[in-house]
Amino acid sequence: MGASQTRPEHKYQDLADKTGFSLEQIKNLSKRFQQLSGNEETISRDNLESIPALANNPIRNEIIGAFFDKRNQHQDAVGSCQEIGFEQFLMVMSHFRPPTLKTTVEEKEAMRKEKLRFLFNMHDTDNDGTITLAEYRKVVEELLSKSDAITKETAEAIADAAMLEVASINVPHMGPDDFYEGITFEHFEEILKGLEMETRMHIRFLDVDTAKMGCGKSTS
């Protein structure tokens, strides 16, 4: 071989270790971050609200809020931020990494749990560890908001019936006068146990198709 190739500057190596993204993927995500932020060091909700592909998404507010939710940024904290930097942005994006052929069974299970926790956090808007009926109603109303045939009262009735069904599954011996406080994360896992999450949870509205992004470490 000719002269040996030199390794590129690994300024993102620490982020690669934290997120599982390759150095090349982090560079690509950095370019998208700069586009969204206007080459600033942080992005705000306004930056994400300006994305055309999100305009008609019925759970647009929940998706945007997820990026500013500290629980999704691996901070071991609760609450929300007004703005986030690139590292926080990357930590949220890491929830959407698909598994590869080299991903072990244990790693796939960890990824699945992480994705489920992310989805749970989107619905548990008050950070109390439970998706209440009020929170569930709000999501159902937003999901059905594009249908002119569905009134708010009908949407609430659908949410109430769905929550009652969840209660009957998770607390089968409830009495008629018992109050179901809401869906815990353990209940949430049980509800979605048959749904394959590892490769389905993508994010395309940022013009980044994570389903096509390999998630192994860079070897060059």
TrEMBL record:
GO terms for biological process: cell differentiation. Residues 111-146 form the EF-hand domain. GO terms for cellular component: cytoplasm; lamellipodium; nucleus; ruffle membrane. The keyword Cytoplasm applies. Gene3D superfamilies: EF-hand (1.10.238.10). Belongs to the calcineurin regulatory subunit family. CHP subfamily. This is Calcineurin B homologous protein 3.
